[in-house]
Amino acid sequence: MSAKVIDCVAIANEMKEELKKEIEDCKSKGASIGIATLLVGEDFGAKMYRKQVEKFCQEMDIDYINANPPADSSEEDVVKIVNDLNNNKKVSGILPLRPFPEHISDYAIINSIDVNKDIDCFHPYNMGKLTLGEITFAPATPSACIEIMDREGVNFEGAEIVVVGHSNIVGKPISILALNRNATVTTTHIFTSMAGNLAKHTTGADILIVAAGKAGLITPDLVKEGAFVIDVGINRVKVLDENGNPILNEKGKPKTKTVGDVDFDAVKEKAGKITPVPGGVGAITNMMLLRNTIKACKIQNGLA
Questions:
Q1: Contact of 130 with 177, CB cutoff 8 Å
Q2: Helices 8-28 and 140-151 meet at what angle, rounded to 10?
Q3: Is residue 61 classed as helix, strand or coil in its secondary structure?
Q4: Which CATH architecture best describes the domain 140-284?
Q5: pLDDT tens, residue order, the chain (304 aa)
Q6: pTM of the complete model
Q7: Which CATH code of 3.40.50.300, 3.40.50.10860, 3.90.78.10, 3.80.10.10 fits the domain covering 33-117?
């Protein structure tokens, strides 16, 4: 029997209506809500995400600022831009888009962001609070995973949760968030796999959260029967024909598609519940970012 495929788009749409009411409530009390993205230079991936954020802000009728200094800007100049955004009352949240150019330190930029405008929890202060369970802002993607589980009625207490991936952006914070809910959490990563121990951990997971950045990493033999599988991975791969050869588009270039870290078609026959890619966790991530932005607005305007 195939797994229940979680309709994350439906969850996101439900959240959108909930958050619109909160936005109107803030505006009715005279508060401005807005997001500023900080993109230094012209990184392609960062530019794509920036456009998504801008479109999202337009849809939700909140202010948007595109801070986009050139790649050769000095670190001092970029910090000054951040300070200007810190002092801008129309900006509730600041979202740095990485990678920064090599001569600009992530640490210098992130540490210059007002902790009450750090809506994706990059600042060490907010990460420290997250670790202590005294959360102001939790990172958007890990929070989206928690939101999915909450809406599916997961009881975290004592649940065996295995996280595959230990990045600062997803793996570590999702492990901490689940641990804060009294789950039993195991964090695995590339070195677990290299040591030949990945299956030992993943096959015992009631809930398997995969954020490793490797297409098709999780196959059915790595999954417990009936497990809840959450796929955070986003990978672009070539579309192949039945002989394993790339299928070309009208311009003669290989076609590509977006897939997760989980072999979806195979694993859904063994899992109990599963999130798809695309249309999975990513659909809810923007909603979590907006929820943090609304919270930031309330803090800054004495409405929290």
A1: yes
A2: 110
A3: coil
A4: 3-Layer(aba) Sandwich (3.40)
A5: 789 999 999 999 999 999 999 999 999 999 999 999 999 999 988 998 899 999 999 999 999 999 999 999 999 999 999 999 999 999 999 999 999 999 999 999 999 999 999 999 999 999 999 999 999 999 999 999 999 999 999 999 999 999 999 999 999 999 999 999 999 999 999 999 999 999 999 999 999 999 999 999 999 999 999 999 999 999 988 888 888 888 888 888 888 889 999 999 999 999 999 999 999 999 999 999 999 999 999 999 999 7
A6: 0.93
A7: 3.40.50.10860
